[in-house]
Design brief:
The structure is a single chain. The radius of gyration is 24 Å and the shape is globular. The chain has three domains: about 160 residues, Sandwich (Jelly Rolls); about 100 residues, Immunoglobulins (Immunoglobulin-like); about 290 residues, Glycosidases (TIM Barrel), CATH 3.20.20.80. Helix 2 links the parallel strand 24 and strand 25. About 15% of the residues lie in helices and about 30% in strands. The protein is of the alpha+beta class. The two termini are about 50 Å apart. The strands form eight sheets. A seven-stranded parallel beta sheet has the order 26-25-24-23-31-28-27, covered by helices on one side.
Amino acid sequence: MSIPRNEYPRPQFVRTEWENLNGQWDFAFDDENKGLSEKWYERFPDGRKITVPFAFQTELSGINDGSFHDIVWYRRGLTVPESWAGRDLILHFGAVDYRAWVYINGNLACFHEGGNTPFSANITHLLNSENNEITVRVEDPSEDVTIPRGKQYWHQQSESIFYTRTTGIWQTVWMEPAEKTTLAGIRWTPEIDRGDIELEFDVEGITEGLSLSVEISFNGQKIISDSTNLFESYNKRSFNLRNRFTDRSNIHGPGWYWTPENPNLFDAVLTLKKGEKVLDRVETYFGMRKVSIEDGIFKLNNMPYYQKLVLDQGYWPKALLTAPTDEDLKKDIELAKEMGFNGARKHQKVEDPRFLYWADRLGFLVWGEMANASEYSEEAARRLATEWFDVVKRDYSHPSIIVWLPLNESWGISRVAYDKHQQAHATSMYWQTKSIDQTRPVLSNDGWEHTISDICGIHNYTSAEEMAEAYKDVESAISTTPANRVIYANGFNYNGEPILITEYGGIAYKVDETEGWGYSAVQSAEDLVEEYRKVTGALTDSKIIQGFCYTQLTDVEQEINGLLTYDREPKCDLKKIKEINDRK
């Protein structure tokens, strides 16, 4: 049986030696919460199987049970390749929703909270010489509305804008060998005005006598080959790229910049050595691009850039949050580009890094968004802030990500318009993001009720005529009250930020007998194109709007707002959508 999702899961930090642990695992529901007292981590109950990395709620898991099961367990055997002998073994999880306890041979190896971010554990000290076993216990409290779960519904049946839950392992599980001294992480920061790329790196188990070599290539041409001795306090290198090209045509104009039209990428290899011994080797890449806002104008690589985005929920019929294959992630981007969109908001989802890899490779802008909680509390604030830090850290080096969006439509901060406590939380999320990434714009709360934001993002599902009137000038735009919400929270004001309509449309067209809903409805493919032309034209004709995000790429469950069906079949002639988008 083939292993599902067998591509390397961490595309910007690739090691050649690794083993994918997806596939068949033993599985058990623990509705009575007796697994700990009965020590299932030592004596696992016989019964079910599950196909990892698909959640039990999905068809591809082999279980397809949509009912509540808040505690679940996994188990599988573990065989360590003989060629890895003498090295440490690192176990990786792409994402497990929501709290996970990992046991190796009955001993607790690690605990992790957060359903959207990766975690790892060095399990070397817990291994037997043979017959090893991994057990994972997961808690996903279905009715806790302070957990950052995004579009996952806290009721049993999907309805309105909320969809079926995802519980447990939903991204790849894998393992790889490591020396005691390894590269623990890297981060690339492009500086296109100087022609520099800045490399920051973390070394775990640092010792004397280490060196790091860096080789950077562009279109197969090696342009940097550098090596440096490492000291404990030294973790940053900067390389000038502009003067390294033998083909000088690349340095005049944007020939080596990253854009959606020309997604140029530099490949790099980092090798960590002690003397002549190679301790670690990582393959990676980066893009040279700059995002800035100058005098109220959004710019990409110092040039005004109009964003034509589509809202992408990132759900699939047989697999929910987990793409069935790597090709499915690529296909969604290709379909969006085929329609003339140059990017997407990944809505209320921290997407699989493989999606960002394809966005980098294919040239596709991404607004990185956090899955939000439904209600506010001090615990909700802690959960969001803690996990969001890891999201930004994980995805910092992807050139496709151009905006950070920790909060959306006042989710989890329903009283932010006037509540000082919630305003402080929204503002703190803005500054927290800025504290770890100064290279991208950040919104405190997309849609309305902004506190401090680098972009004024407005959601508006009214008619084309109403939109044309609302966005005839700045004063009209910021005085609107979509969904009866003010654009800026009490005490905060518009300060010349670029204005984008970051949700609009939502045109429902039902192509089969499935019941569904949308913000407005049409009865034919031709009507869908015509309505899209009108509402989008109202925005592209505006002299103040610098971009849009149409709702949405695909249908999802009961929501039929997609330009594509849930199965990614076009609802209309995609060339006509592209013609409309290409007018701007």
